[in-house]
TrEMBL record:
<dbReference type="InterPro" id="IPR000304">
    <property type="entry name" value="Pyrroline-COOH_reductase"/>
</dbReference>
<comment type="pathway">
    <text>Amino-acid biosynthesis; L-proline biosynthesis; L-proline from L-glutamate 5-semialdehyde: step 1/1.</text>
</comment>
<dbReference type="Pfam" id="PF14748">
    <property type="entry name" value="P5CR_dimer"/>
</dbReference>
<feature type="region of interest" description="Disordered">
    <location>
        <begin position="196"/>
        <end position="216"/>
    </location>
</feature>
<dbReference type="GO" id="GO:0005737">
    <property type="term" value="C:cytoplasm"/>
</dbReference>
<dbReference type="GO" id="GO:0055129">
    <property type="term" value="P:L-proline biosynthetic process"/>
</dbReference>
<dbReference type="InterPro" id="IPR028939">
    <property type="entry name" value="P5C_Rdtase_cat_N"/>
</dbReference>
<dbReference type="GO" id="GO:0004735">
    <property type="term" value="F:pyrroline-5-carboxylate reductase activity"/>
</dbReference>
<dbReference type="InterPro" id="IPR036291">
    <property type="entry name" value="NAD(P)-bd_dom_sf"/>
</dbReference>
<dbReference type="InterPro" id="IPR008927">
    <property type="entry name" value="6-PGluconate_DH-like_C_sf"/>
</dbReference>
<dbReference type="Pfam" id="PF03807">
    <property type="entry name" value="F420_oxidored"/>
</dbReference>
<keyword id="KW-0963">Cytoplasm</keyword>
<feature type="binding site">
    <location>
        <begin position="51"/>
        <end position="54"/>
    </location>
    <ligand>
        <name>NADP(+)</name>
    </ligand>
</feature>
<comment type="similarity">
    <text>Belongs to the pyrroline-5-carboxylate reductase family.</text>
</comment>
<dbReference type="InterPro" id="IPR029036">
    <property type="entry name" value="P5CR_dimer"/>
</dbReference>
<comment type="function">
    <text>Catalyzes the reduction of 1-pyrroline-5-carboxylate (PCA) to L-proline.</text>
</comment>
<feature type="domain" description="Pyrroline-5-carboxylate reductase catalytic N-terminal">
    <location>
        <begin position="2"/>
        <end position="80"/>
    </location>
</feature>
Length: 265
């Protein structure tokens, strides 16, 4: 909702349905968006965005289905829930599009993936892409890729936050004040991400700051930090001893499996 409003939609163009009165009041206070019951929201909407927990999706669809007008575009952001699950609970032919985005959307840096479900044509997917583009990057994927997308970019911010927490703790272990450790680590993360995504940014002649060649390889960037006989190689040996690479592979595989499980339940 915050993204839609920052992308230029007015609060009067959006309505929300929220069963928790505290959260409903917060939505109206923060965004100026009216909160109505799900039936009223569905009846008014040209596009219905389903953003409940996967476990609540069956209930919310049962509430909404009789009120969704034929042809209304229905968008689900729930992890795991297949477009077929959504479509089966709506009038035949209702276009359904699935989205997996991530929380950096809140600062305009989302990584969103979209795919067409039953009844959805190119124009429906394009409409959802247009909704998401102002708040980050958007890629089109197949539905079979969405569990993997969820495991990488959907849950991914949590993996980075986890690593950053651990690095800050490392600074504290070495005696640095926590605030200083946090500043050092967060700027290091932001700078490293910028080198990966916008490698030419900051070069003379890069007037738009958008960078040159896309996507510097992470292995090359890591090698450039790793001086022979230096500090970085000493640290990386410990990461290898700790099995960090294998743990990351196991972690994304666990998220992928859980996403599949949510879809099957
Ligand atoms: N948190 C994340 O980083 C991401 C979450 N998602 C997906 O977004 C969805 C929402 O996740 P969260 O925001 O973390 O969940 P949440 O539980 O914080 O928010 C869902 C809201 O829906 C409300 N709700 C549930 N059933 C309702 C009903 N029948 N009528 C009216 N309101 C109802 C709840 O009161 C709650 O406020 C999930 O399906 C999740 O898989 C997707 C990508 C990233
Ligand atoms: O943890 C979850 O299930 C949701 C989906 C992706 C990120 N958060």
């Amino acid at each position: 909702m915050s993204g839609l409003l920052r992308a230029g939609r007015t609060p009067s163009e959006v309505v929300a349905a929220e069963r928790d009165p505290g959260r409903a009041a917060e939505i109206t206070r923060r965004y100026g968006v009216e909160v109505v019951d799900p039936a009223a929201a569905a009846a008014k909407a040209g596009v219905v965005v389903l953003a409940t927990k996967p476990q609540d999706m069956g209930t919310v669809l049962a509430q909404l289905a009789p009120h969704v007008a034929p042809g209304t575009l229905v968008v689900s952001v729930a992890a795991g829930i297949t477009s077929a699950f959504v479509a089966e609970r709506l009038a035949p032919g209702t276009p359904v599009v699935r989205v997996m985005t991530n929380t950096p959307l809140l600062v305009g840096e989302a990584m969103s993936a979209v795919c067409a479900g039953p009844g959805a044509g190119d124009e429906h997917v394009a409409a959802v892409e247009e909704m998401l583009r102002p708040v980050g990057r958007v890629v089109r994927v197949t539905e079979t890729q969405l569990d993997a997308v969820t495991a990488l970019s959907g849950s991914g911010p949590a993996y980075f936050f986890y690593l950053i927490e651990a690095m800050i703790e490392g600074g504290v272990l070495l005696g640095l004040p926590r605030a200083l450790a946090a500043e050092l680590v967060v700027q290091t993360a932001a700078g490293s991400a910028r080198m990966l995504r916008d490698p030419g940014a900051g070069d003379p002649g890069d007037s738009d700051g958008a960078g040159g060649a896309a996507g510097e390889h992470p292995s090359l960037l890591r090698e450039a930090v790793t001086s022979p006989g230096g500090t970085t190689v000493a640290a990386l040996r410990q990461l290898d001893r700790g099995g960090v690479r294998a743990a990351v592979l196991d972690a994304v595989e666990a998220a992928w499996a859980r996403s599949r499980e949510l879809g099957a339940s």
